[in-house]
Amino acid sequence: MWCVLTAWAAYMEGKGGNYLDKQDWKNTDLCPLGNWWGSAYDTYTVAIEKGCWVPIDAIDTLTPARLCGAILVKNNRDGSDAAAASTGNRWPGHGDLYIGVDATAPGKILVVGGNLGNTCKAKLARTGEYLGLVLLQ
């Protein structure tokens, strides 16, 4: 569940903030949604309310500068939301931080993902794995 917190922490550090400082989380220059959440669902819900949610099929319409630092929200994974998984619903269940596009891997993007409980690493991911993204810039 803390995967999105990992993405938020990486984003905030990149902006010069300190994710351990509670005041930085209230600074909208460092945290555009005005708060942070560990869950993909909460981040997704507030992004829709704030007008910064973009469905994944619109990713090709955005410039690389606009995408950099976006939080990608993925469908639920096995075990992250058993109720949603059992009904087959597309439910926000995981988040990664967008880093860039790999020109040698069409249809894939470079992200930083993981969770605070075990590991965080860069990886190539298929855009089709995601519901959409939260634009933070």
Can you lay out the helices and strands and say which pair or pack?
Layout: H1 3-14, H2 22-26, H3 40-50, E1 53-55, H4 64-67, E2 71-75, H5 82-87, E3 92-101, E4 108-114, E5 120-126, E6 130-134
Antiparallel strand pairs: 1-6, 2-3, 2-6, 3-4, 4-5
Label this structure with key terms.
137 residues; alpha+beta; 6-stranded antiparallel beta sheet; 5 helices; 27% strand; globular
What does this structure look like?
The chain is of the alpha+beta class. It is built from 5 helices and 6 strands, in the order αααβαβαββββ. The chain has a 6-stranded antiparallel β-sheet with strand order 1-6-2-3-4-5. Helix content is 28%, strand content 27%. It is globular and about 40 Å long.
Poorly predicted segments: 78-87
- On the 0 to 100 scale, the average pLDDT is 76
**End-to-end C-alpha gap:** 24 Å
Order of helices and strands: HHHEHEHEEEE
Oligomer: single chain
Taking strands numbered 1, 2, ... along the chain, how are they ordered across the largest sheet? Answer: 1-6-2-3-4-5
- Write down the overall geometry: globular
Major sheet details: 6 strands, antiparallel
Count of strand segments:
6
Secondary structure: helix percent: 25-40%
Q: Give me the Rg, rounded.
A: 14 Å
Strand content: 25-35%
Number of helical regions: 5
| Structure classification | alpha+beta
